[in-house]
Amino acid sequence: MLLPIQDDTSSIPLSPILAMAQRVTELRAQGHNIVDLTLGEPDFAPPAHVGQAAVMRAMDPLGYTPSNGISALRKSICRVAQDDHGLEYGDQQVAVGCGAKQIIFNAFFATIRPGDEVILPAPYWASYPDMVRLCGGVPVILPCAMEDGFRLAADVLAQAITARTRWVVLNAPGNPSGATYDAAQLGALADVLRQHAHVAVMSDEIYAHIRYDDRPYTSIATVAPDLQNRMLVVNGVSKAYAMTGWRVGWGLGPVPLISRINAVQGQNSTQTATLSQIAAVAALDGPQDILAKRNEIYRQRRDIAMAILSASPALNLTPPDGAFYLFPQIIGRVGDQAVAARLLKAGVATVPGSGFGAPGHLRLSFATDMDTLKEGCRRIVAALGSDA
Ligand code: PLP
After folding, report:
1. Measuring from each residue's beta carbon to the nearest atom of ligand 1, which residues come in under 6 Å?
2. CA dist 238 → 33, 107, 135, 246, 309 (Å)
3. Best mutation site among 239, 248, 284, 365 for ligand 1, i.e. most ligand atoms within 8 A of its Cβ?
């Protein structure tokens, strides 16, 4: 029987990450031993005080909250923006949603008119282009070469902007590249944006706390405060505090944009869960030492994985500045999907780079324990070596 809905689902493809994760589940159910390096979430538990704060309130009558969340959460978000970035945002400049993902979707939904263009530097987080299309927009993909650190150059941006450009999305540290920008690189992008007042900037900073240099995080919002009236800064608790399942993310921006995002939020899920908001306040207001400790663990994993994989002549690797992915280029073999399929046969799951707009690469997550990671990397080296 046909469902009374549009039966063409091709415009809503399954994310390549979820597709590979499903394949892993199927193979494991058949008894195969698969090391899964596809995962985009921390393998840690949230800090203990987060769970405790939620448990304390779990039996209370928790009702709806405003669609932009409880005021305690908005206050904590504004304080963190001030402490981390030196940025001042008022209470009405905060949107809260079910993860950074919903904020990004809401922002596109609230602003994209049919045919509007959204500039996405590639490699990009796989969800951006699908979200843009679902909102009626046109993703404009700008490939950023590995030799350029996977960063968007100002002249490339300048050439891509048209009268239809609605958004430019920056994501640093990047998923999957791990690339970050310094103040000079962001300043050059800001100079271009100043010449195009109709273009809004989205800065997705969800991995800002997971970084391997010792410099403070540099946001385009700090570098170009004059662009704040057309900039949305996105963040959340998912990656930094290992709270992916709690679903709390936020956006900071100008009041007219935030009001529209809140209106969309109000109609699609009212708010994110009240208990999750309480947990997010505990994460933001509680001790922060866990961030540095976990960063150090990720750094050790990154370095070990790089050391093992560098034995393979089939991979060209650069160390990521942040996030928890390696994004090696495949050398001497055709087709990242074929290579990922071959690796899966050899017992290790990775995500082909074409899902991130960068064919010829593989994404490997090191958000997994050291033994699993080492075993996965060894399997990759062995599998790629055997067909040289
Ligand atoms: N932005 C990027 C670049 C991501 O990689 C992810 C999650 O993988 C998100 C946003 C969404 O995060 P959240 O769990 O807060 O929705």
Report:
1. 40, 99-101, 125, 171, 175, 204, 206, 236, 238, 244, 249
2. 28, 19, 24, 7, 28
3. 239
Q: Residue 54's closest CA among 263, 192, 241?
A: 241
Residues 171 and 259: their CA atoms lie apart, in Å, by 23
The pLDDT assigned to 1 comes to 44
Please answer whether residues 85 and 183 qualify as being in contact, where contact means their C-beta atoms are separated by less than 8 angstroms.
no
| Collapsed DSSP state (helix, strand, coil) of residue 168 | strand
Helix (H), strand (E) at residue 190: helix 183-194
How far lies 336's CA from each of 10, 361, 363, 387, in Å? 22, 6, 10, 15
Query: Among 102, 80, 138, 150, which Cα is nearest to 291's?
Result: 80
Q: How far is the CA of 98 from the centre of ligand 1 (A)?
A: 11
CB 208 within 8 Å of CB 242: no
CA R_g for the chain: 21
Q: With CA atoms as reference, report the closest residue to 315 among 379, 362, 371.
A: 362
Closest C-alpha residue for ligand 1 atom 11 = 101
Both tokens of residue 138?
């046109």
Placement of tokens 């970084």 in the chain: 211
From 110, 93, 73, 130, select the one nearest 249 (Cα to Cα): 73
- The CA distance from 305 to 300, in Å, is 9
The most distant pair of C-alpha atoms in the chain lies apart, rounded to whole Å, by 63
List the structure tokens of 321.
């500045």
**Which of ligand 1's atoms lies nearest the C-alpha of 236?**
15
Q: How far apart are CA 212 and CA 292, in angstroms?
A: 10
Q: What is the mean pLDDT of each run of 10 residues along the chain (388 residues)?
A: 51 78 93 94 95 96 96 98 91 98 98 98 97 97 96 98 98 98 98 98 97 91 96 98 98 98 97 98 97 96 98 96 97 91 96 96 97 98 78
